[in-house]
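Standup notes
- HV: blocked on the assembly model, inputs below
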Amino acid sequence: MTSTIDETASSVADSPARALVCRGCGAEFPLAAQHACYQCFGPLEVAYDPAALARVTRAQIAAGPQNIWRYAPLLPVGQDPSSRVTLDPGLTPLVSASALGAELGFTAPLWVKDDSANPTHSFKDRVVSVALTAARGLGFTRFACASTGNLANSVAAHAARAGVPSIVFIPGDLEQGKIITTAVYGGDLVAIDGSYDDVNRLCSELVETDEFEDTAFVNVNVRPFYAEGSKTLGYEVAEQLGWRIPSQVVIPMASGELLTKIDKAFTELVEIGLVEAPAGGWRVFGAQSAGCNPIATALHNDTDEIVPVRPTGIAKSLNIGDPAAGLYALEAVKRTGGWMDYATDDEIRDAIQLLARTTGVFAETAGGVTTAVLRKLVASGRLDPSLETVVFNTGEGLKTIDAVAEQVGPTYRVKPSLRAAREAGLLG
Amino acid sequence: MTSTIDETASSVADSPARALVCRGCGAEFPLAAQHACYQCFGPLEVAYDPAALARVTRAQIAAGPQNIWRYAPLLPVGQDPSSRVTLDPGLTPLVSASALGAELGFTAPLWVKDDSANPTHSFKDRVVSVALTAARGLGFTRFACASTGNLANSVAAHAARAGVPSIVFIPGDLEQGKIITTAVYGGDLVAIDGSYDDVNRLCSELVETDEFEDTAFVNVNVRPFYAEGSKTLGYEVAEQLGWRIPSQVVIPMASGELLTKIDKAFTELVEIGLVEAPAGGWRVFGAQSAGCNPIATALHNDTDEIVPVRPTGIAKSLNIGDPAAGLYALEAVKRTGGWMDYATDDEIRDAIQLLARTTGVFAETAGGVTTAVLRKLVASGRLDPSLETVVFNTGEGLKTIDAVAEQVGPTYRVKPSLRAAREAGLLG
């Protein structure tokens, strides 16, 4: 499947995207279903026509729909609404977290960007909408992914809405909530007896077979498009703050790609003049779990060598032991003067409750990781509580209820009578 | 607690609400924390100043926020944004369900109003935002409810966001997802050894005690305000259809109140001239489960006597055996020429999968009830598939995954190798 978007879908040919560019050697390739450089095997990224981006205005965005497609003029696909394969994710709430900030000693505003509000309740709806819109434009007729759970939910739901067959690959030990929420949409669901990294490797092999020639793996053969969807999180935060970039952002890391794309979004907004950089620039912080911390460990060891790990722990949606964008995440964090840290399972459980109690946001384990790391970064002095900060919650607590099921529950058990209520102490 | 809104909160005194009116004898009372008529013990409802409602324009609504508060000029509270106790629910997707419509034989458009997209993933966020805004205006300092689950989630989350103590009462046998998603917010959670109707009775007693004088039970002592929040579902459907009312709506029934308020919203929109009624009017259809069908049974038996039942079955969020608004739901369905039906647990499970597979919407059991009843109504000829129809999904499948956990799962289990994938038949 080597057809380019230009050849197969004139409806997306008017995008500002110009080419796929190798992040390693800089070689350029046409916009097609290709994810690795033919020259150095480096990963590819979408490059844009600067003049096209520079024409985008705030008013143009404000006049767009109340979802990620308001940023279509900054994306490689979806300029024509009829070309979109989408659940219309995005414009999720930026929640003021003043009570959380007060507990952690913040004197500047603290915000939670709550992406559990997306249609399948994680940020993955953003990347899947962009990837599958590219996939259909490129002529693919089956949608697929390798997933730690949230991506599986999103691909299966998008495929159901679009009426396109899907085949989703997951590690066999996922949380039941994520398995059911994929299977219910009726596509094929393949449980692999291994880790996410095993699943990913298998998908990289399958994509080369004749039998999968018609199949777009959102995070393999159309990965460059997929990754661009994460930029919308950065755009939204800036727009929701009244076209400002926050001084500090705390972002969970699995492959590390989300962190790099939020940074890329901020950079683009400044370059094209839609936003001014904050005084002192913005600082990017990365969060991992103690059970899967290869990127943070490399930073702490002051090395660019990311040593793959065999992931453990409850933050399964972040359990990528061999993170594809780890080097680029390291680069962004170092360049901006940020830092990375990681949280234990107990710290994650505590942080899920802390976030829920102070903000009303019930996060999945990944959100617990980010909140726990926020607390650590303040305690260690790496993150400045006198600067405006945004923490990203990328998923929904309902998908990982087992993480807190033993921590929380009814505070009273009472028979249905006033007398029983009095005896239980409910009446003082 | 008999203070009126006018006395305690001038910020909400400019609402179009005029009084509380008895649905039984028509007696009027000031806007206060009162839910039953002092003369005939009938239920109270908010009445509006017709002239105030008639001043509301489409442009005024369109200029409002992207949530229920765009309809504040049609609500009894929340005119001043700073007065709102809210997670900003609403403007949930109206999803085109063309594939579902095709399977059921529709020739007219079929839509799913997907209220699982609300902050705590059910329509209850709408009623809670209105009730708690009233409660704070009336001077209450603790928030409470009797709940079948979704309401518990919403009250606990709203209280956490607002920094107000909460105490939530639930039947002890609720789905774990709904228990955890309440408890995680850190308020008090009281599990009652009994049915929802037992819980509700206990709360009606507690509200009269001195110890609960400071406590607003959203669906007891501020119930008239609470119920008005459901009107926003009707307003949104009309606005999202381009200011049109659909010819047919299918609505799940627990107390029956949601159905009456969607009908009330349509009636208001026509009366104030924002929308024209469809040719032939609109028809309202009610959906219950076979395990709790007192309202539908009364209709089928052609009687106005609703005989309370002891609920059973998987659709727990609809399990109210003694439905407070049942008579009013009967009235609306008869007046508009609609009908009611009910679905068995197996039909509910099938319908959850049908809806997910054809629309990408994963509904909780209540959404399965509504979809199953839609199918029955078409099959029996009660609902006309040549007329535009909207089906309401009021909750999220993740909260009731046990309902389908034995029906769906991985379609393949494979070791992580190309050879194993081939042997499993994945390569044709």
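- HV (later): unblocked. Residues 94-121+230-405 of chain A form a domain with the Rossmann fold fold (CATH 3.40.50.1100). Chain A touches chain B through 76 residues (CB under 8 Å).
- Next: hand off to the docking folks.
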